[in-house]
Amino acid sequence: MPRRTMIEAIRDAMDVSMARDERVIVFGEDVGFFGGVFRCTQGLQAKYGKSRCFDAPISESGIVGAAIGMAAYGLKPCVEVQFADYVYPAYDQIVSEAARLRYRSNGDFTCPIVVRMPTGGGIFGGQTHSQSPEALFTHVSGLKVVVPSNPHDAKGLLIAAIEDPDPVIFLEPKRLYNGPFDGHHERPVTPWSKHELGEVADGHYTVPLGKAVIRRPGAAVTVLAYGTMVYVAQAAAEETGIDAEIIDLRTLLPLDLETIVASVNKTGRCVIVHEATLTSGFGAELSALVQENCFYHLEAPVARVTGWDTPYPHAQEWDYFPGPARLGRALVETMEA
Predict the structure, then answer these.
(1) Which of 110, 225, 239, 272 could lock onto 229 through a cystine, CB 3.0 to 4.6 A?
(2) What is the maximum alpha-carbon separation in the chain?
(3) Fold (topology level) of 213-336
(4) Cβ distance 216 to 234 under 8 Å?
(5) Same fold for the pair 3-199 and 213-336
């Protein structure tokens, strides 16, 4: 299969979807002529015209609000918020309108929109270009929340999100945009890895929403991760020599609880890792679910390895990120508990 970066895979997903269904439209800040700040939409306007891929004013609330109206009348908007940090002006539209439309209308209207956002750190963007707000959306009934970890999944999950009849928040880890992150290095020479690109099939395919995947089978401890942290988990397991089973959640809402419970019941231990802050992060929900469903199989407390509970300056970015050393210590402590 062809090898593509995540950027190329995401672009291909939109291209395939727009070619298959004329109702699919793409818009947002700088996504038309410029092709997006990360070039995820490069070439789409030239191919499909300004009525199907176009620039929007700098108004996240306006972008998402317009998309909701378009969706209610039969279109399938796939909109880009330039950075996840910028989504807050649109939060009311997402929560109060998009997530509720099916229920408020008793099914008369649906809201098949996708809100794409680059998430997390990796570009030395500091406090205002590096946030991981996934927990704000997993709290909202009516939304689906997706975080891919590789180009193959990114394309398949995005096509599935575009074809879904309800609103999907699609969070794209910036550190993975140009190639899989080398989880062994907490302070790489450049933000981007030089690893191989991911294998991504041509044409149309989907990866089902709500289904996790086991990236590394193991018997000693279950590691729950998503996005960039999948690679950190793999590196920590290799460096410690611990027989960790690594689950890539892929979709946070709806969550594949069945796969999680089966793994933790087998291993008896669980470590959760994510880039967002500790307090009220998605790991708290995961921890509660594991405790509720796996209590009698647990051999040690559920552990969480996360970002700091504080904004961080640019210079401390790589200290803020959970790395293989910090996760490795948690794995060792969990095995010794």
Answers:
(1) 225
(2) 60
(3) Rossmann fold (3.40.50)
(4) yes
(5) yes
Q: In the chain, at which residue ranges do the beta strands (DSSP E only) sit? A: 3-4, 24-28, 53-55, 76-80, 114-119, 144-146, 168-173, 198-199, 213-216, 221-225, 244-248, 251-253, 270-277, 303-307
Task: Please give the structure tokens belonging to residue 9.
Answer: 């895979």
For the residues of 181-239, what is the DSSP string, one character each? --TT-SS-SSSS--PPPEE--SS-----TT--EEEE--SSEEEEE-TTHHHHHHHHHHH
Coil vs helix vs strand at 276: strand
Q: Is the separation of the CB atoms in 157 and 170 below 8 Å?
A: yes
Q: What is the DSSP letter of 244?
A: E
- In the structure, what pLDDT confidence band is assigned to residue 125 with cuts at 50, 70 and 90? confident
Backbone angles phi, psi at 153, to 5 degrees: -65, -35
195 catalytically annotated: no
Q: Which of 129, 139, 184, 204 is catalytic?
A: 129
d(CA 112, CA 110): 6
CATH number of the 3-199 domain: 3.40.50.970
Res. 3: pLDDT tops 90: no
Residue ranges per structural domain of the chain: 3-199, 213-336
Q: For position 194, what pLDDT does the model report?
A: 40
Instruction: Provide the pLDDT confidence category of residue 231 given band limits of 50, 70 and 90.
Output: very high
Return the structure tokens found at 334. 């969990």
Per-residue pLDDT tens for 49-95?
999 999 999 999 999 999 999 999 999 999 999 999 999 999 999 99
Q: Is the pLDDT of residue 274 over 50?
A: yes
Distance CA(36)–CA(78), nearest Å, equals 13
Lowest mean pLDDT among 32-46, 71-85, 120-134, 268-282: 120-134
**Residue 115 pLDDT more than 80?**
yes
Euclidean distance between CA atoms 240 and 261, whole angstroms: 24
